[in-house]
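Pipeline run #58 for the internal structure catalog. This entry was flagged by the ingest filter as a single-chain record with no existing model, so it goes straight to prediction. Upstream metadata was stripped on purpose; only the residue string is passed forward. Reviewer on rotation: M.T. Logging verbosity set to normal.
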Amino acid sequence: MVTLLDKVRETLNRHAMLTVGDHVLAAVSGGRDSVALLKLLVSLAPEYRLRLTVGHFNHGLRGEEAEGDADFVRQLAGRVGVAFASGKAAKGLYQRRRGRSVEEIAREERYRFLEATAAACGASRIATGHHRRDQAETLLLHLIRGCGLEGLRGIPPVREGKIIRPLLYATKQEIEGFLRREGLPYREDSSNQNVRYLRNRIRQGLLPELADRYNPQMEEGLARLAEIVRRDDDYLQSATAEILQGWDVRTGAADPFIPLESFRSLHEALQARVVKGLLEACPGAAGKVGYRHVEAVLRLCQRKATQTGRLDLPCAMTVMKEGDILRLRKDTGRQNRRVMDGKGMADKAYAYPVTVPGTVPVPEAGKTFRFTWTESPGGQGFREVPSVVYLAEEGMIPPLVLRNFRPGDRITPLGMRGTKKVHDVYIDQKIPRDKRGEIPLLADAGSVLWIAGRMISERVKVTGRSLKVLKAEMV
């Protein structure tokens, strides 16, 4: 019979989680999984000649109950003869969320504590108690939020060569059986019953429902999916890195570029990876590049060799198509610089991403914009209503952005074939020079679509064939 200790030993060896003589910081909350983890590491310590330290973090969310957990773990560490270190979340931490969830902040703070404690005590590994059900829950969580292959990797067995998950292939039942046989006490975390947290709703509702009504082996299947995706994703990451290295694109490189002729010969899966890698090579952009940014750049790459184009992306990144070259620039002054109106200085540059449906305040112009999708409005789409316009979705090249004037901005006025400089439109309409930088422009990856309150582009004119229409209102 294969014991839990045997399974953990096999996991450690398969993923090279430990080397003989390692100092391991075991993350112990006091719950069943982390208590089992500590006991297993203590049992394996002579075999691997391990030095162990217990790390316990109080998230500051459960008052006296959490203080009791800390006392329990401190006593547990003392009984097994292991050094103990603890930390606690700063007071008021969760009041400074800035749109992030409590779960996300708590997780970040816990890992920050573990990293700092490992550095302080000289631990080369940090062991956590994640097991197979955690893996299944994580995959469902990522699917619900929307993810690509990176999200379907789930929880990796080893992260950054330092954080290890020896219990990742163990089931909850195996862990509970081990605790019973060993007679090990543990603490119950009352917050695990709080359905305010999405993971708890998945744990208590969705995953059992899928297992009961659709597939009794759902947990195993999701864990297997994570394993398969992890291998495939590792290959794609390696292939992408080789391609970028061949084009001499490195993290932090000044003005990196890729040759579009070679780029277009790649499979579309690699094209998306290459674009993501190019963007993430920009300092400060790692982890901030999303699906819509990659798709916008891919659309830019598909334009003809004679066409140029430009995208302003987060983290002050600017992507430019120049003939058969795609170039990336980091403009550190983009958020604060003052923009030229062609003759003199205008107001500070501003740019706000547009999501539909959504509302975008533009304090620089003293206006708020509302965006919704609608069906073709028929004749009213062509009315002269300065504050409300209808734009055909099929003519757009996302992403959309509300911003003020940039040198070189052009628009195709209604009824015209060619483009016209926005600067010339301002002159024709006798707009004072000092007011031009305040006027909001709705633009996409190609050009300006709407000079708010004044003109829309022929490119997005609504016709009888338009199936999806953007209604933009300025209030």
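catalog note: The radius of gyration is 28 Å.
catalog note: Confidence is low (pLDDT under 50) at residues 334-347.
status: ready for reviewer M.T.
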